[in-house]
């Protein structure tokens, strides 16, 4: 079985190791979104769950938000790489 908290744990580690405040905030938000995703997935009991449609809509929304924030992280880290190094 796939560990549903794997994404949360991954972003927990990234948040702890982030060097800039902005990157920490992005990772914190991604960590929260992955936690929400795991909670939604764990609450889906069966296909006959009365709220399964609502939970699937929430899951789609959370997945969309995760994609948006991962794009923001990529853009942020690309911008950081293009900056000159003033510590030389």
Which labels suit this protein?
about 90 residues; mainly alpha; 3 helices; elongated
Question: Structural class from helices and strands?
Answer: mainly alpha
Q: Secondary-structure element order, as H and E? A: HHH
Report the principal-axis shape.
elongated
Count of discrete alpha- or pi-helical segments spanning 4 or more residues: 3
Largest sheet: none
Question: Helicity, in percent?
Answer: over 70%
Q: What is the rounded Rg? A: 16 Å
Give the low-pLDDT segments. Answer: none
Number of E-type strands = 0
Strand share of the residues? under 5%
Mean pLDDT: 86
Separation, N- and C-terminal Cα atoms? 48 Å
Description of the structure:
With 88 residues, the chain is an all-alpha fold. Helix content is 75%, strand content 0%. It has helices spanning 6-17, 21-43, 52-82. Helix 1 (6-17) runs antiparallel to helix 2 (21-43) and helix 2 packs antiparallel against helix 3.
Secondary structure elements and pairings:
Elements: H1 6-17, H2 21-43, H3 52-82
Helix pairs in contact: 1-2, 2-3
Write a short abstract of this structure.
By secondary structure, the protein is mainly alpha-helical.
């Amino acid at each position: 079985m796939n560990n549903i908290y794997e994404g949360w744990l991954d972003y927990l580690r990234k948040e702890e190791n982030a060097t800039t405040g902005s990157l920490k905030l992005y990772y914190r938000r991604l960590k929260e979104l992955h936690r929400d995703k795991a909670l939604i997935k764990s609450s889906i009991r069966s296909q006959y769950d009365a709220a399964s449609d609502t939970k699937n809509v929430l899951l789609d929304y959370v997945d969309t938000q995760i994609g948006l924030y991962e794009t923001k992280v990529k853009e942020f880290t690309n911008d950081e790489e293009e900056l000159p190094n003033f510590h030389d």
